[in-house]
Amino acid sequence: MITMAILLVAMALAALWTVTANLYLRATIALALTSVILTVIMFRLGAPTAAVFELSVCAGLISVIFISVISLTHRLTLQEFLSRRQNRFARFRYLPPLLIAAALAMYFARQPLGVSLPWRETVTDARSVMWDLRRFDLFGQVMVLLAGVFGVVTLFRGAKNRDGR
Amino acid sequence: MNLIFLTILLPLAAGLLTLAVPGRWRGVREALLLLATLAGLVSALLFYKTTLTVNLPWVGFGLELSFRLYQFSAFIVLAVAVFSFLVALYSCWSMAGRPSAGQFFAYLLLTVAFTNGAVLADNLILFLFFGEALLLTIFGMIIIGRPGAWRTAVKAFIIVGAADLCLMFGVILTGKLAGTFAMSQINLPLGGPASLAFIFMMIGALAKSGSMPFHTWIPDAALDAPLPFMALLPAALEKLLGIYFLARLTLDLFQLRPESWLSTLLMVIGALTIVLAVMMALIQKDYKKLLSYHAISQVGYMILGIGTAVPVGIVGGLFHLLNNAMYKSCLFLSGGSVEEQAGTTDLTRLGGLFSKMPVTGACFVVAALSISGVPPFNGFFSKELVYAGALERGWTFYAAALAGSFLTAASFLKLGHAVYFGRASGQDNPVKEAAWPALLPMIVIAGGCVLFGVYNALPLHAIEPVLGARLAHSFAGGPENWWLVLATAVVIGLALANHFYGVKRSGKAAGASDHIHYAPGLAPVYDLAEKKYFDPYDLGLKLAGALAQFLYWCDRAIDWLYESLAVGLAAAFSGLLRWCHSGNLSNYAVWALAGAAAVIYYIIR
Amino acid sequence: MIYLFIFIPFLALIVINLLPQGEGEFAGWAALAVFSAQLAAAALAACGLIGLGGGWLDQLLHFRLLSDRTGLLLLFLAGLVGGTALLSGWRLRGASRSNFINLLLIALTGINGLALASDLFSLYVFIEVVAVSSFVLIALFRERSGLEGSFKYLMMSALASVLMLSAVACFLVAADGMSFAAVRAALAVPGNYLARAALGLFLCGLFIKGGLVPFHGWLPDAYMSAPAPVSVFLAGIATKAAGLFTLVRLVRLAPASADLSAVLLLVGTLSIVVGALAALGQRDMKRMLAYSSISQMGYIVAALGTGSALGNAAALFHFFNHAVLKSQLFVNAAAVEEQTGTRDMDRLGGLAARLPVTGTTSVIAILSTAGLPPLSGFWSKLLIVIALWTAGHQFYAAIALLASGLTLAYFLSLQRRVFFGRLRPELENVKEAGAALLLPALGLSALTVGVGLVFPFILGMFIK
User: Fold this and answer.
1) What band does C205 get if pLDDT is binned at 50, 70 and 90?
2) B597 contacts in chain A (CB < 8 Å)
3) Number of domains present in the structure of chain A
């Protein structure tokens, strides 16, 4: 129980670091760290398939893509860096009241949520879930991917020409 | 069936055609007018004795195109045809050269068409339709009179229109009670809602006939409208229609009994109309205005007669209707001739015209004697019948009628004396007799007055079948109660004495009624009446003005509420909202999250 | 047969991209054919002339598609509005044209998937298909404002995704699967708080997707900054399908309860009033239309909140009318912008003399939206007010009625500032828009008037 609590807190801290980091590279590393902690949590909760997915896709693949994109950008100048560092907490001004509100809400909602959750033995294999039960969703996911591809094509093809680089 | 449509459609078509004929074609419109009215007269004579009913499905819901030609309606149609022909003849002369002549002819023909339609209609809604249409022609005919006439036209329109609204309500209520709108199938006992329906329809009929308190537009119209209008419409056609409808109401549609309070109500209205209107007539100093008050006063006799609900009274009322139409037309036509020839209708500036216009003068004398109830003219006989009916219901009504007679006689003595006899005052221009188209109608009508008096069986035998089985015996011939005749003779004698006393006192014929006008106690009342303090329409106008002022302020307040408060509030809110929508994404996200938290909390609560 | 609705746009997309592009004329005609075919097929199916069985494909694919009249309504509207958007973007050239057509077809596939999905998770996936293609469409010209609008939509959508995925997770625990039947069964169990929490989460996600107050922050920016043909598509069908149609599906799963009803009524009336008031203060024509869109969606949500059969029918009917009218108005806005180069209502005026067709069709759409008889908008608003009243929500009915006045107020102000009044001198040379904009405007107007006259027929065809 205590281990789980520590892991959750650590994940929250890592996520916080991700959104407050003032350099993209650091943010990417923090995101990967968050994913790794999430993987551990998933393992402990008994979902090895999901954990493997999380580790390979989120922590691995996405980090690689991010870093390769970041390597295409130019470095910040010192002034940009300083101004960004100064204002990096400004966009979190709503966070404390939100946290307090959430805590209050949870306190008041404690009563009805106190019921014990039903526990389901899910023995279905992830592959059968994906290929047998959720075929329509798979089609939908293909469409999401296609939309993403066309989006990249639309938004980034020829951008260099226009910017003159 | 073609005959019935002919009487309505022929004048209608001719009227519309007259409107379309350009004014440059001299004589065409006059020819159209005369031909159409003559054709109407001939056709009315042709089917005078026939009975016809036409039933055509129309809109449905009890609204059928049904007409009924029978004794009563045929009689009225014939009367309309005669008067319209004579007035048409007269107006060809009097309207000649006026720019609005074409319009007037058209309205005249349309009026004839609508009146025929209303009289022949056997469906209450159809009747209402034609009655409302008449409203338009009244409006049109008054408004073309002279530049300021629109005020009177509006007054007439509003008064008659409001009464028509009552009529409409009464028609609907009656139709509901009887289950049909077919007039020949309705025969309701009075009492409860039926009484209400009767009263509403009665209001409509009374306003059409111009009785008090719906009379006030008539004296105004007498001054403003073209003269043939006065001879034709309020004096004859409207009365024909209104009294015809009143008679239908009391005889057919409802079972009015002599002892019922509605009968008494009608008689009270009739008696009041007689006395009050003639009181006003007495003091007038204008030929046409004096006549117009008499036009109102005479209606009182008819209402009184019909309101008695006893056979002799009803026959008297209907006979008086016919007689009044005749001598009143004649009187108005004579007034028109005098105005045309002498250039004025002011009694104080007229005088001694009998020698210059002998035919007109003679016709006037016959008509005046007739209206005053002097034997053996027709007015005498019809009044005697009304007196007999009134006496059957109570001596107060009889007394009121008799008082009316006295004042009528007095005022005509004054009128005749001032205009045709006495000496000409300030009349230097040579006055000539009117042309023959003006004289012919007057002569014909005056002759009719004598004929219907001497040989009163002719009209009475036409009227009496209307009563059907209720009639015990014919009233034709001489009066039955010679005491009443004696009383009438005494009253006329008194009027004569009064007249000479007045002339002597004031020194001139036009001032013959001054001693009554300025009598202590009466003078202030007359004063107020002349200033129209007793005119319901003027009172209503004043009240409406005050109300309008009040509503105006209310309206300002509401306007302010709308224009300043509401718009200001809306503008303030939309400004606030615009300020909120700053484009800051984190604001939006916070709203959404807060909203989500609230929704979820509320749902699982 | 029913599979064709999702496969034909997909296949058309592939075919168009495999064939040589040329000037893009062929792609346009092919896409137009797809939209028209869908329009016709949905109408025929609603009349019962075409069967909706899956046939042998059902045995092979096991998509478990749901075919009902509500879905057909969405399919019909998707064909109609998609075709309208395509025509209003007919003037695009080069890369933007092919991208526009490609993304339109993907979004159409997503909308068709929404119409046919019988599973809450599938619903989520297809919402994302529509959303992702919409992000790109908004930023189609890569202008700064377009990118900003797109980014806001993206961020708020991410929030919505989080909410919806949390709901999916909760349902996975609380219900026996994600299919509509399982979710309905779970929600029917009293005391299943987790399921109700999941319902609330999904509801909020959909509120964000639909842009109801107070979840609406992204909507005015996105509508305003999108290219004209894209805003026709977005306002006419895309967000409505993703936010409102799905809401209809979801609300029908839950048993009628006072809590859910209260939430829907409150959010609905809040949207009606805030949207209308905010619309009053706008200068930009498309931004005003965006706020008006929020207000009109509020009517639909409030009608759903009654929970009665009448309310449901009224909501769907208004959904239909709203899609038609909003597309119409955005097409008119596109015409005005294309011909004058501005959307600022303070710099327009008197255009009715120069753009007679646009001005007239705009009047029809405005009067219909404000609910004037006998146009179609009158009937749906009338039904909504009656539904609210008979369900015992007289207060909300009164607000809905009063807000009709506000609707008329801001629309008349739009009409006056853009089309009536004196023609400004700099607008002397403005000419009527081309046929590609006029044809859909006329068609939609005819639909507005026609449906107003024969509305019971439409009601029976798609809703009963």
Assistant:
1) very high
2) 101-102, 105
3) 1
Which of A29-43, B142-156, B283-297, C346-360 has maximum average pLDDT?
A29-43
Give the pTM: 0.58
- Count of A–B CB contacts within 8 Å? 19
Q: Does a structural domain hold residue A83?
A: yes
Amino acid identity for residue C57 in this structure: L
Q: Which residues from chain B sit within 8 angstroms of residue C280, using beta carbons?
A: 570-571, 574
CA distance A80 to A69: 20
Is A123 part of a structural domain of the chain? no
Q: Does residue A27 fall inside a structural domain? A: yes
Best residue in B601, B602, B603, B604 to probe A by mutation, most A CBs within 10 Å?
B601
pLDDT reported for residue C106: 93
For residue B522, what pLDDT is reported? Answer: 67
Stated as kind and residue range, the H or E segment containing B187 is: none
pLDDT band at A160 (very low <50, low <70, confident <90, very high): very low
Q: Name which of C136, C170, C204 to mutate to probe chain A: the one with the most chain A Cβ atoms within 10 A of its Cβ.
A: C136
Substitution target from B584, B585, B593 for chain C, most C beta carbons within 10 A: B585
Candidate from C102, C129, C140 with C-beta closest to A140: C129
Report the share of chain C in percent with pLDDT over 70: 98
- Structural domain including A19 reads 2-99
Chain A hits for C193, Cβ within 8 Å: 112-113, 115
Contact B599 C203 (CB under 8 A): yes
What percentage of residues in chain B have a pLDDT greater than 90? 0
Distance CA C339, CA C86 (A): 18
Interface contact flag, B573 C207, Cβ < 8 Å: no
Q: Does A91 touch chain B (CB under 8 A)?
A: yes
Cα dihedral B196, B199, B204, B205 in deg (nearest 10): 140
Residue A128 located in a structural domain: no
pLDDT (tens digit per residue) in B158-175: 777 778 888 888 888 887
Q: What share of chain B is helix, strand, coil (3-state, %, to 5)?
A: 75, 5, 20
* Tens digits of residue pLDDT in B111-133: 888 888 888 888 777 788 887 77
Domain ranges of chain C: 266-464
User: Can you give the three-state secondary structure of chain C, one letter per residue?
Assistant: CCCHHHHHHHHHHHHHHHCCCCCCHHHHHHHHHHHHHHHHHHHHHHCCCCCCCCCHHHHHHCCCCCCCHHHHHHHHHHHHHHHHHHHHCCCCCHHHHHHHHHHHHHHHHHHHHHHHCCEHHHHHHHHHHHHHHHHHHHCCCCCHHHHHHHHHHHHHHHHHHHHHHHHHHHHHHHCCCCEHHHHHHHHHCCCCHHHHHHHHHHHHHHHHHHCCCCCCCHHHHHHHHCCHHHHHHHHHHHHHHHHHHHHHHHHHHCCCCHHHHHHHHHHHHHHHHHHHHHHHCCCEHHHHHHHHHHHHHHHHHHHHHCCCHHHHHHHHHHHHHHHHHHHHHHHHHHHHHHHHCCCEHHHCCCHHHCCHHHHHHHHHHHHHHHCCCCCHHHHHHHHHHHHHHHCCCHHHHHHHHHHHHHHHHHHHHHHHHHCCCCCCHHHCCCCCCCHHHHHHHHHHHHHHHHHHHCHHHHHHHHHC
Question: What band does C23 get if pLDDT is binned at 50, 70 and 90?
Answer: low
* Per-residue CA distances from B177 to A91, B187, B206, C132 (Å): 80, 10, 22, 72
Which of A112-126, B19-33, B269-283, C286-300 has maximum average pLDDT? C286-300
Contacts of B601 in chain A (CB under 8 A): 105, 108-109
Which secondary-structure segment (H or E) carries B534?
Answer: none
Other Cβ atoms closer than 10 A to B146: 14
